[in-house]
């Protein structure tokens, strides 16, 4: 997609469309990593990935997320 | 804290973060000492059921769940989503150890539990009677 470079104060910026921020799950204040490839004349903007600590069991984390999805209506209904 | 307790602390923090993120709760730990108390069982033990470790018998599991639920609800270590964190962690444990339970009864028990009137032993007994 094409975007125009716009003025943001004394800097230049690009506005991100809603579908992009939604797809990337970026909210106000989210941090992203910007890399510049001068040779190819391109920039890459990506989500900052955090390494999972070694003693985390990936299977357990996935299991917890699955339960969160399965019991969404129950867990989402608790006002705490 | 032991290595196991630190590992369990990370899991609980992850569970709470998941819930706060999904349901717009206040994120973060309110009181680290309150969380340590949840994880430090008498005699240097810890809540090994939270990481799915093999337990020698069912009684140990009920005992750990009673301790976990009581101190989480009594201490409220997180800024928000303490009850939800208890429930999500419990659901994972019950499924991991292949225990049968009724969701309505479990929810009703956790939501209406009053740590001033029910201690960890009472909670353990409830699990032994209702999750088999």
Give a written overview of the molecule.
The complex is a heterodimer of chains A (80) and B (132). Chain A has 80 residues and is of the alpha+beta class. Helices cover 30% and strands 22% of the residues of chain A. Chain A is built from three helices and four strands, in the order ββαββαα. Chain A has helices at residues 18-24, 58-70, 72-75; strands at residues 6-8, 11-13, 32-37, 42-47. In chain A, the strands form two sheets. Chain A has a two-stranded antiparallel ribbon. The longest helix of chain A has 13 residues, at 58-70. The relative contact order of chain A is 0.08. The mean pLDDT of chain A is 89. Chain B is mainly alpha-helical. Chain B has a single domain (3-130), classed as Four Helix Bundle (Hemerythrin (Met), subunit A). Chain B is globular, with a radius of gyration of 14 Å. The mean pLDDT of chain B is 94. The interface between A and B is medium-sized, with 17 and 28 residues.
The secondary-structure element order of chain A is EEHEEHH
Number of strands of chain A: 4
Helix percentage range of chain A: 25-40%
Number of helices of chain A: 3
Number of helices of chain B: 6
Tell me, what is the CATH class of chain B? Mainly Alpha
β-strand number of chain B: 0
Largest sheet of chain A: 2 strands, antiparallel
Unreliable residue runs of chain A: none
pLDDT average of chain A, as an integer? 89
Largest interface: A-B, 17 and 28 residues
Strand content of chain B: under 5%
Task: Give a quick summary of the entry.
The complex is a heterodimer of chains A (80) and B (132). By secondary structure, chain A is of the alpha+beta class. Helices cover 30% and strands 22% of the residues of chain A.
